[in-house]
Write a structure and sequence with these properties.
By secondary structure, the chain is of the alpha/beta class. It has one domain: Rossmann fold (3-Layer(aba) Sandwich), CATH 3.40.50. It has helices spanning about 15-20, 25, 30-40, 60-65, 80-95, 130-145, 155-165, 215-225; strands at about 50-55, 75, 95-100, 115-120, 145-155, 165-170, 175-185, 190-195, 200-210, 230-235, 250-255. A 7-stranded mixed β-sheet has the order 3-2-1-4-5-11-10, with helices on both faces. α3 packs across α4 (about 60-65). It starts with 15 loop residues before the first helix and ends with a strand.
Amino acid sequence: MSIVVSDDWWKNLFDEIYLLTDARSVCDDQLTRQEVDFLDQTLDWSKSDPILDLCGGQGRHALALARRGFTNVTVLDYSPYLIKLGQERAQQERLNTTFIQGDARATGLPNQSFQYILIMASSFGYFKDEAENIKILHESFRLLKPRGTLLLDLPNREYILKKFTPESIHRVNEDISVKRMRELGDDIIYSRELVISQQHGCIRDNAYCTRLYSPEKITRIMTDVGFADISCQLDFMCRDGKGDFGCMTNRMVVLAQKRS
């Protein structure tokens, strides 16, 4: 494996440059509307239900829900930059959304605080050590109320393996382009990202990884954690033929319930 990824790569990647390199997904208002439409149609929730947008970044889903009248939405993310950005947007729009900087494996939030937990936009599976990913599921289980629901939005493993491309390039604007080189490990995608400015040269050279899960594997893991009524839906927000969006090109939604 020529791409070397540090264990804590995720601590420093999610900043203003990330919002440029991934703007086609995480700053796409139309895509966010479509994703939130799906949530609204799929989840049997009320606008007063306590909802946690876990690993929620700048809160694009949480803020969209608040605009639709949801009154009890919390965002937790590790990135201070994204949390501050979300707080500022919520204040500007006078939206009652709570933003918390923290670690999804150990949030420090009280037991049974939420009826719904969302982990959107392929934000799960960042740890090379699988035990660390599973800690997030245990924490989600702890935070859910009885009969609460967890929704996981994951890369579609079968699609990625079938369509795997070792290299992609896209232009962000007239000045900046992004080149990504990828290698497949044991159900892990290792990526190296070069962000090139025509004016300033290379402004980022980072490596990161994302774990891939089959429906069978994620169901087995979540069952072991204690979840029940687990279902998987493939081809979520499929953008096949519209460009290489990496793990956001075709995704899988997993729903699971905490029975007691």
